[in-house]
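Example 3.2
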Amino acid sequence: MPHIQIKAFNELSFPFSHEEIDFSFIATNVNFPDDKLICATSEDKTFLLQLKHNEHKWLLKSDKVTRVSPNFHIKRALNAYANKAGLEILFSNLKQKEMHHRQKESALKAIDFFAKSFPEEKEIWIEVGFGSGVHLLHQAQNNPDILHIGIEIHKDSVEQVLKQIAIKELNNIMLLDFDARLFLEFVPSNRVGRNFVHFPVPWDKKPHRRVISHPFISESLRCLKEGGTLELRSDSENYFAYALQTFLDLNQSDFRVRKNQDIGIVSKYETRWRKMDKNIYDITLSNHEFSEPLENDFDFSLKGRLQADIEALNGTTQKSKDGFIHFERLYKMHNGEYLLRLSMGSFDKPEHLFIIIKENESNYFPSLPISSRTNYQSHLKLKALLYG
C-alpha cells in the first residue's frame, strides 16, 4: 500500500489545491487526536488519506475503506500534500517504477457504474476473485463477444490485471474491487451466462466468510440466464465437501461434479498443486429457471433535524435479526461537522463506509452504499437512529 513515514506533521489550512490534487478537509478522531483523515480528489476519484502517529514518527497512507485504484491517484495525493506542507520524509515507497496503463483505466469500474447502468449489450460472464487474472484474461481473449466482469478485493491483483488488459489490448473486460456477495444483489436477473468461482479462500476457521453460501447460490441462480452455470473450482477437500453439501441443500438442483479435469488454462498455483499430487475439484451448477426482474431503486438520502447524540453513539453497535450497524470511529472537522466511519448490513457481508454528519442533512461519503436490499434495511434503521 502506498505510504510515507514523516518526522513531523504540518497541518495546512483547508481547502486547497496543489499539483492537480484538491484537498477538501481534515478531520480528527474525537478519542485519539493523533489519528486524522484528509480528503483528497485526484481527477474524478475522491478518497481519504489517513495520518497516524507511531512512536517517534508519523505514517501517512491511504484509508482502507475509501482506497481507490489505480494506485497512482493515491501516490499523487501523498506526494502533493508532502510537497505543499514541506514534510520531512523518513521513508517512502512512492518511487517504485510503474507501468503506465491509464489508457485502460476505463476497464476499472466503481460500484456506482453497475448500480446506475448495468451493461446490457452483451452476454455477461463473471469471475469472483480473479487473483492473477490468468483465467479471466484467457476467457476474454477466447470469447471476444462476451463481456467479462472480474471481481477482486486484492488491490495489487487489480493493478496487475489492468496492465495486462493494456498489453493485450482487450476491450471486453471490466474490473471491480468490491465484495462479490454484495455485487450480485443488483445484477439484473437472467443476464449472466457463466459465474466462475475459482480457488476461493477456504476460510476453514471462519466459514461464515466463504463465498459459497445459501444466499450466494440463490443470488447466482437469479442472475444466471436459463442454461447458465455457476462453476466452483477448488483444491481444498474441506471446501469441496462443504460446497457439495450446500448445493445438495437446494430443494431442486442440477449439478455436475468432476475431479482433476483439464479446463484448458492452468495458473502457476494449480501447476504447483498438481506437482504435489493435490486433487482439484469442480462443481458446476446449471440454472433452468426464469427469475423475476430485480427491483432495487432505493432512496439512501439522510435528511431531517439531527436528534441523536453522535458522540454517545461512537463505539456502539445496534443489532437486529436482519443485521447490524456498528459506529466504528468518529472524526470531527474544523467547521464542527462530524465524519463517521461505520459498518452495516448483514453479519456475514457488512459494508464499511463513511457519513458526513451535519445538523439538518447528512451524506454518505464518498459515495452511496451499494443499492442492495440488505443495505437499504440497514439504512432505514440508521435514519431512524439519527433523526428519530
